[in-house]
Structure formats: C-alpha cells, structure tokens
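Here's what a typical entry looks like (Calcineurin-like phosphoesterase domain-containing protein):
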Amino acid sequence: KNYTSQQPSQKEPAPALAYFHIPLPEFSSFTASNFTGVKQEGISSPSINSGFFTTMVEAGDVKAAFIGHDHINDFCGKLTGIQLCYAGGFGYHAYGKAGWSRRARVVSVQLEKTESGEWQGVKSIKTWKRLDDQHLTTIDSEVLWNRGSNGRGGKDHDRS
C-alpha cells in the first residue's frame, strides 16, 4: 500500500518475491523443454496441494518463488505468470551429486532511478547461479520480470 501511495508513488503494487523451503506440487508441472537449469531428482512436494500457488496467482503481485529442499535440482520455469525456481544445492552439510558443483542462486532486483538520482520503483528482477568451482562460474542468467512487460521475462514457459 505504501509503495503506491507515498512519494514517489508507483502505478502498481511492488513485485513480490516468495522464499520457502519445500517445493509446491506445481513444481512437477515442468519438463526438460520448458525450464532453464537441470532436474536431477524427483520433486519432493507435499502429497496434498494446499492451494498456496493459486493464492500467489490470485494475489497478482508475486513474480517469482524460490525454494530449496531437492539439492540437485536448480531449474526455473514459468507457470501461470510466476517464475518457480530451485536454489540449487549450496552447502556441504547435506547431500549433493559427485562431479556436480555446489551452487547458489543469486537474485538481483534493479530499481529505476530519476535523472536527479532519486530511486523509483522496481525495474527488473534477474537471477543466475554461481558455482562453487575454482572460477566461481556464473551460469543460467535470465530476466525473471521487467516493468511494463506484463510480467514476462527471460525464457517464458507460461503454461496458463
């Protein structure tokens, strides 16, 4: 509410990002042809669908949801206007896969700025993964959301 009413006022609600651990059943909607990254194990979601994904869609402001739990999945795919992204396994305290570098998903939110230097609303949301290898390699960079693009960003695999 403050985002659209205080100066500088914005024309629409701020794009929301959701972070939680356990994947929603909707993460099972993707196949190798409609996501960026890799799926190397099954989706460990609850057997009962709580309706949380539908709630995020109905809210209208959620642009991406980021989860963990399945350590050797690191994909992003778009479903009904929301990017669903795995973080990838980062720490060495849990299971991984031999020969597969540990990785962390980075999320970057860029703000618009006026010519006078004042910060404005969110311009874009980008993501990539940083590997824990000798070069700290960056892979799978993509734009998840751009202002004025109807929520369309990066590789659009919308299955509305």
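The helical segments are 2-5, 52-59.

More examples are in the samples folder.
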